[in-house]
Amino acid sequence: MHQPKRRLLLAAGASLSLSLLLPGASVSAQAAPATSLPNVVILATGGTIAGTGATSTTTVGYTAATVGVQSLIQAVPELAKVARVTGEQVFQIASENMSNEHWLTLAKRVNVLLAQPNVDGLVITHGTDTLEETAYFLDLVVKSKKPVVLVGAMRPSTALSADGPINLYNAVLLAASADAAGKGVLVVMNDQIQAAREVTKTNTSTLDAFRTPELGMLGYIQGSKAFFYRQSTRKHTLETEFDVSSLTALPMVEIVYGYANVGPVAVDAFVAAGAKGIIHAGVGDGSLAAKVLPALKAARQKGAIVVRASRVGQGILARNGEANDDELDFVAADTLNPQKARILLMLALTKTTSTRDIQRMFYTY
Ligand code: DGL
User: Fold this and answer.
1) Does the CB atom of residue 67 touch ligand 1 within 6 A?
2) Would 305 disulfide with which of 93, 107, 277, 324, CB 3.0-4.6 Å?
3) What confidence tens digit (pLDDT) does each residue in 129-177 have?
4) Three-class secondary structure of residue 26 per DSSP
């Protein structure tokens, strides 16, 4: 009997998928007709997912933000099985250079696209260094229930076992999934689904860098399917009071770091530079060193909002715990890390300067 030859099917592009057709094996499912697939727009901003290195083993010391969005899409032909994908190059930057102005531009483009009936979901490719910040900013200002998924890579596109292609596939698959609607802005890295509010980068270079310690990730991507096991309890997207559509700038809010021997210089400098808010990333439960407290009091008296956060990374920053916030008229950051507390305070200051109102916002978002 004629035995069908084994054939090696090579998929084009950076991802190499081998499927051996064995006698009697069923060919993998044909892609669904494109007309039945959701429309997902990929907004590319740069980062390592778009990075290139000198060799296939270069996983540090590469150049971020060199590969364009069309190349990212072409490198993953499997995307066509899960969505009708189009791409826009919004920026091409390493994300340490992300700015308030970039955020406003991105947020406005996101809201315009999501308002279009022919857009079902968005993916934003992004450098991992500030990915958690952009995700939380969008979580507070996106005005749609449609999925918005941020994704990056810990290895450049040229590296052996680059994680970008599978991360991008997972992100598009999630953005095309009805289960992802209404859950706020999501982050997908390393087959895990994370919430924008709580996810943080916990390692400088490993593939599992993005985690949600203690409060937990939301679910997994496995076998081309999204599995959710929890969702954030805090308000987001359509439920928030923030609207950036008419904003051209955000209030200046800066972060000062707490450590042994810290002094008041940083606080004084930021206030002199015109900061409208100071996030104090304190030791422990947001303790204020005796040498810093007078500077923070002076900042408050000049009208700056002071938020006590912690450098620790996990746990509730308790109001009136390590400092008398009622008496000082300071705000407690709850469980937001300092870089995310800065984002919420910037947006809060577009609405109010009442510390009572701002504290409510830190307990709400
Ligand atoms: N320069 C860093 C950035 O663009 C590279 C890190 C990365 O994207 O993984 O965030």
Assistant:
1) no
2) 277
3) 999 999 999 999 999 999 999 999 999 999 999 999 999 999 999 999 9
4) coil
